[in-house]
Design goal:
By secondary structure, the chain is of the alpha/beta class. The protein is about 25% helix and about 25% strand. Helix 3 crosses helix 4.
């Protein structure tokens, strides 16, 4: 039996991506075959396709997440036809991922869900919510009443983080480089949209002179010093994203780099960091209109090159999703 899939033979441009027909993957005990209905696009897949990933192997079907129904679970962990999402755990790197009509993943990477949300909306949620939830709760240990700065607020994780933080009772500052996008941030519930001109710390401290309690860095090391300077003494910055593709700090000297008393942590977790109960709660909040998650655009599989170009160029506000059928 064959299926449609996007197969990367090696690094290349977005326009080189094509849908091919390949064999439906076999499934063994402890793994689950998922019939994919939709999948979200993620920055790490751009890194893989562009040849920036250090742990890449080719050929490979990319995709670190997928949403659909269980086709087969030899170990009995899930029932055929059950709604599920799958993410992380080596998907799209160590083994073939979600850019396909079927994907086979470890049972530990699968989370059951029950919802009437359409597949495109549900397909936007897994990795976006997992990264935002983990960054806020594991990386920053947020508490109600705190102030939070999100650096890179119109990214999919930035949008999700703002929604989760507001639902948790925080005051949210969020940045965009495009002045025309501040209204979008306001509509998503952000308290203080900030145009990022490279000097965000000064703008934040005009509003909260002591700095914010917590900051989520999604841009990269090129702006990290400014984000640290926007953060209060005993506050925490969590380094999660690298939208600028700046990943490392050359000649890192902690005493010269870190402001006095400001903590720097990082988050790069797995699906296990988002318990099934928490994921279901978020899905229910989205379905009830109480967690404003933004899907920027929905594509077909045949439009995967166009979708990757938009992701690479940073032209989306929120999540890009591919609906498989």
């Amino acid at each position: 039996m064959e299926m449609r899939a996007v197969v990367l033979e090696g690094p290349g441009e977005p326009e080189e991506m094509r849908v091919r027909r390949v064999a439906v993957p076999e499934v063994r005990h402890g793994w689950v075959r998922v019939k994919v209905e939709a999948f979200g696009l993620n920055r790490s897949e751009y890194h893989l396709r562009a040849g920036l990933a250090t742990n890449a192997r080719f050929p490979v079907i990319p995709g670190i997440e997928a949403t659909g129904t269980v086709d087969l679970a030899p170990g009995g962990e899930f029932e055929p036809g059950q709604q599920v999402v799958a993410m992380m755990g080596g998907m799209g790197r160590e083994y073939d991922g979600g850019y396909a009509e079927y994907t086979v993943v470890p049972a530990s990477s699968v989370i059951p869900v029950k919802t009437d949300l359409d597949w495109a909306t549900l397909g936007a949620l897994p990795e976006m919510l997992q990264t935002a939830h983990g960054s806020l709760h594991t990386g920053l240990a947020i508490e109600p009443g705190q102030t939070l700065l999100i650096r890179g607020g119109t990214s999919s994780v930035g949008v999700a983080a703002a929604a989760i933080a507001k639902e948790h009772g925080l005051t949210v500052f969020s940045t965009t480089r495009n002045p025309q996008r501040t209204k979008v941030l306001e509509d998503l519930g952000v308290d203080y949209p900030i145009v990022d001109d490279g000097n965000v710390a000064a703008k934040v401290r005009e509003i909260v002179p002591g700095g914010v309690n917590a900051a989520l860095e999604l841009i990269g090391t090129n702006v990290l010093p400014d984000t640290l300077n926007a953060t209060a003494v005993h506050g925490t910055v969590c380094f999660t994203g690298m939208l600028s593709d700046n990943w490392t700090i050359p000649d890192f000297y902690p005493i010269g780099y870190l402001p006095n008393g400001v903590r720097l942590t990082a988050y790069g977790g797995e699906s296990s960091d988002l318990p099934a109960e928490a994921f279901q709660r978020y899905v229910d909040l989205v379905a009830n209109g109480k967690l404003p998650i933004r899907v920027d655009r929905v594509f077909t599989m045949e439009q995967i090159g166009e979708a990757h170009r938009i992701m690479q160029d940073g032209a989306a506000v929120g999540k890009l999703v591919v609906k498989v059928n």
